[in-house]
Amino acid sequence: TGAGREARSAGPGTGAIAGEQAGYHWKIVTTWPKNLPGLGTAPENFARMLGEMSGGRLTARVYGAGEIVPAFEVFDAVSQGVADAGHGAAYYWKGKIPSSVFFTAVPFGMTAQEMNAWLYYGGGMELWREVYAGANIEPYAGGSTGVQMAGWFNRELNSVADLKGLKMRIPGLAGDVFTRAGGTSVRIPGGEIYTSLQTGVIDAAEWVGPYNDLALGLHEVAKYYYYPGWHEPGAMLEFIVNKDSLAALPEDLRAIVKTAARAANQEMLDEFTARNNTALRDLVENHGVQLRRLPDDVLKALFDASEEVLAELVAADPLAARVNASFQDFYGKVRAYHHISEQAFINARDVVLPPERKDP
Amino acid sequence: MPRMLALVAAIDRFTEASGRLLAWLAVAMALLTALVVVLRYGFNIGSIAAQEAITYIHGTLFTLGAAYTLKRDGHVRVDIFYRRFSARAQAWVNGVGSIVFLLPLCAFIFCISWNYVAESWAIRESSPEPGGIPAVFLLKSLLPLMAATLFLQGLAETLRSAAVLMRASE
Amino acid sequence: MSGYIALLMFAAVCLTLMLGYPVAFTLAGTALAFAAGGIIAGVFDASFLSALPGRLFGTVNNATLIAVPLFILMGVILEKSRVAEELLASMARVFGRLRGGLGISVILVGTLLAASTGIVGATVVTMGLLSLPSMLQGGYKPSLAAGTICATGTLGQIIPPSIALVLLGDVLSSAYQQAQLSMNIFNPKTVSVGDLFIGALLPGLLLVALYMVYVLVVAWLKPEQAPPAEQEPVPASELLKGLVPPLLLIAVVLGSILVGAATPTEAAGVGAVGALLLALAKGQMDFSRLREVSRDTMEVTCMVFMILIGAALFSLVFRGFGGEELIHHFFEQLPGGVLGATLVVMLIIFLLGFILDFIEITFVVVPIVGPILLAMGLDPIWLGIMIAINLQTSFLTPPFGFALFYLRGVAPDSLATGAIYRGVIPFIIIQLSVLVALWMWPALATWLPAQLAR
Ligand code: NA
Ligand code: NA
């Protein structure tokens, strides 16, 4: 457990103090509230690593959502040089760049491990750079949550018929899929999710996974916690850097930016992997949360709707079509091997482990 | 001076007419909100577009209505001294306040948001939500429009104050 | 250190506001002038200013602020159709010969409205529209009326559900986790929005009770300031006609939230349409009156939003000058001990509450001070309630409290601003005494959540 703690940010303000004798000082804006556990620690880690690796020549200061710009203005802020860099998720920018969704998560898409492989070894990064080039932005993978949860529900889903009329707060592509599969997707601002679940304006809401969900307290207002997170099997986050800010750096500092991003990327997945399981145990053992798996026919209906939604997205945008082609090609290949490696092993250990050591 | 007052009157007419029209948005917004609630609660029908339309109406109402509010002197003041001032002193506050605070502010918002809005137009920015309204570029255009209409009415108010001061000094 | 320029700007805007030019433009214009000076002097990073369009668009796109015009519309309709007046008059008559009955009625109605949204701009304005004319007509001393309305109008922040508590809950929850992580607790306890809602209940109701006690005491000592309702007996049917329809409307608004039909934001829209139907049913609404209603609604809405926009630019420039580092600097030199640290934090939050709105302060200050104070062992629910009541007090404090601006914006010219200022002072004292009570008996905030957690 020591490694995760070691990587913690030294606290707010240290960047600014070191920045007084630095050659380059960056502003990093994020889509998360300052210091949000998990998601919000990645930009802090990234900023700290930049300072440490460059011996203080490149320092950065992190501004949470709303401090300089609101969450959903991060992309524009970096694009137009208001900030040098940002941390968020590519699918937030779907209204600007439809193909951006592939670089975070698409329903029934790749896991964190597979996404990283596609980005770094399967041509994904090259496409991502191309997709953001028009915005004067250089992207880097910025951490992953791993497989998320399907969400919090106040009604049981026993068959696909139970989706009918189910009101869920589930934004983005997944919301579209959910509606097509028979549900009703509702737009609820972040601050009203809790109350809306409590009073029944919505029957369900998705957030992230146990570590983040526990903090939000949704277990107090919803009975069932469904898995798996079909819509976000490995939500990839992003660091985005303004190209002019990057070009102003000497070569060694540019290499540091790249390496620090890659390190922070791995760091987040490690943290979520470690913390999700303890948070889940807390939810189940101390808060009486009931875990449920989505039934197969529900998953199938969601999958069919996802295929439709993706087909429409791809048909409407040539760049999205190219990204999808690369994504699906890699996905097919990696799945073949993962079928007999990760998946086979995880199944195998379920077979061999004695019952008392098995998961819930 | 007559020419100046004619300009003031023309701006006033524009602001008044557009304001009267825009004001109906308040009622439209309430009706649409109630409709969204009834459809969702009564019929399990959810519409992202309708929910976003409320945001569009709301944004239009408070950005473009600001000039009308200025004309009706509806922007609140700390008037503990102001209300005791003579008409002439009040004209000084309003004239100088416009020139020092309001007009530069509007010019600044107009200029600084130009690029921001142009980028949005260039890609015809759409809603991030499927089924949302594909006109975020129009919503963003409200910012320079607010600055322009407020500037125009601010100019009228400045000239009106100037007229009071000139008349008083005649 | 340019942080001190941020302080200077704070002082400057206090002076320029006094000149009487509209608050919104004075806030923004002063900040802009300082930024321009700072850029010329080379102590201000101009890129901060380029963040303004994004911030303004964030206000346009903010789904919870939608409650503001909807609430105002409801208030204007109820005022113009005289429904509000009849409601308050009937309620006051129910109290019969009791002096201060109308004041109690206003506080009761305000408490019910406070249970819907939590946006100060919406609730203060609505309460002003609903009850100020009645109280003045009823012979109440203007300052007492203004104070009662301002204080009751800010209750929306404390009485759940409240968007202010929700935002505070999110930020506090992160701060609490961070505080525990810093103490090597990796499976941290959490504090949720629900905890804050429940924790706010007793202090909120205590405030309501104390407001009422104050009004009753004034009415008892100085009957001329809060006279009883007319004495001639009114038939019960008359009373019911004034009471039932508007109480039904309030029931529909709150009911739509409770049964899960509407979010607190949407409930404001339900209320506005309900008020419209009510006015139509009473024959008090026609086309020309609706036209008048819509214009008034837009005017008041724009007044509120321009202040928010002015405050957005001001806080951006404040941050650009390193105002945040300055705050951080203060905290590094916190006097020893929990008491000293808490006092300093509360004082700074109180002062910032003059110029920044709840959301800004929640995002600027709480992430800095939260982890430090919580690591000292303070209870997160208690801290949240303290901050919320403190800010509510700040919004009431002359001459720059937001609630005062908003009430001024809808009050008739005949009501002197000085009367508003004088009127809120007793309520500020009540607020402060509740803060002291919370300090001495933290259980006021923490007992109920602990009971329900079992
Ligand atoms: Na999610
Ligand atoms: Na409330």
TrEMBL record, chain B:
Keyword flag Transport: yes
Transmembrane segments: 21-41, 53-70, 91-117, 137-156
Domain Tripartite ATP-independent periplasmic transporters DctQ component span(s) in chain numbering: 29-162
Primary localization: membrane
Record's bilayer topology term: Multi-pass membrane protein
Any GO CC annotation of this UniProt entry: plasma membrane
PANTHER family hit by this protein: 2,3-DIKETO-L-GULONATE TRAP TRANSPORTER SMALL PERMEASE PROTEIN YIAM, SLL1102 PROTEIN
Listed name of the protein: TRAP transporter small permease protein
Species assigned in the record: Parahaliea aestuarii
TrEMBL record, chain C:
InterPro entries: DctM (IPR010656), TRAP_DctM (IPR004681)
Keyword Membrane belongs to the record: yes
Location, primary (coarse class): membrane
GO cellular component term, pick one: plasma membrane
Topological relation to the membrane, as annotated: Multi-pass membrane protein
Localization in the cell: Cell inner membrane
Limits of the TRAP C4-dicarboxylate transport system permease DctM subunit domain: 11-443
Gene Ontology molecular function: any one: transmembrane transporter activity
Listed transmembrane segments: 59-79, 100-130, 196-221, 242-261, 297-318, 338-356, 361-378, 384-407, 419-441
PANTHER family with a match to the protein in the record: SIALIC ACID TRAP TRANSPORTER PERMEASE PROTEIN SIAT-RELATED (PTHR33362), SLL1103 PROTEIN (PTHR33362:SF7)
NCBIfam families in the record: dctM
Quaternary data: The complex comprises the extracytoplasmic solute receptor protein and the two transmembrane proteins.
Family: Belongs to the TRAP transporter large permease family.
Function: Part of the tripartite ATP-independent periplasmic (TRAP) transport system.
Protein name: TRAP transporter large permease protein
Species, as recorded: Parahaliea aestuarii
